[in-house]
Amino acid sequence: MSLLPISTVLFLFVFFSVPSSPFIAAADDLPTAYSLLQSYNFPVGILPKGIVSYDLDESTGKFHAYFNNSCSFALQGSYQLDYKSTISGLISENKITKLTGVKVKVLFLWLNIVEVTRNGDELEFSVGITSANFAIDEFYESPQCGCGFDCNSISENLGRNPFVSSV
């Protein structure tokens, strides 16, 4: 048995290690998860702030989005939402299906949101047995984990002791 020359081994290693894609993008060159949502005709506000990374198989639409931790918040006068540290599903133009990792509290029940569909200027969120429609303009801004859209009032109340009078 003869050994291959080191130059041949190096060539084979480099040749088979380099991805076959003609364009190799650095991680910094990837679009954000929020701009990726927009490319599928969804507003950024269906994802809260805090996505640290994502992966997408463009041929199938299968995606994963990652937070550092789980993310929960309440929307004033509305629903409480909970995002696990990893959410996944299938994305295509105007539709997210097989969604996992997102729950909404309705009355006293936690229900998994399994599908999001854009119909013109409305978004339909399905929990399987039922769905709810919302105007798309309610989702142009991303909520923040912990406080949703009401983060200013939380920061204003920090440091105040409700049992101490200021008079």
TrEMBL record:
<protein>
    <recommendedName>
        <fullName>DUF538 family protein</fullName>
    </recommendedName>
</protein>
<feature type="signal peptide">
    <location>
        <begin position="1"/>
        <end position="26"/>
    </location>
</feature>
<dbReference type="InterPro" id="IPR036758">
    <property type="entry name" value="At5g01610-like"/>
</dbReference>
<dbReference type="InterPro" id="IPR007493">
    <property type="entry name" value="DUF538"/>
</dbReference>
<dbReference type="Pfam" id="PF04398">
    <property type="entry name" value="DUF538"/>
</dbReference>
<keyword id="KW-0732">Signal</keyword>
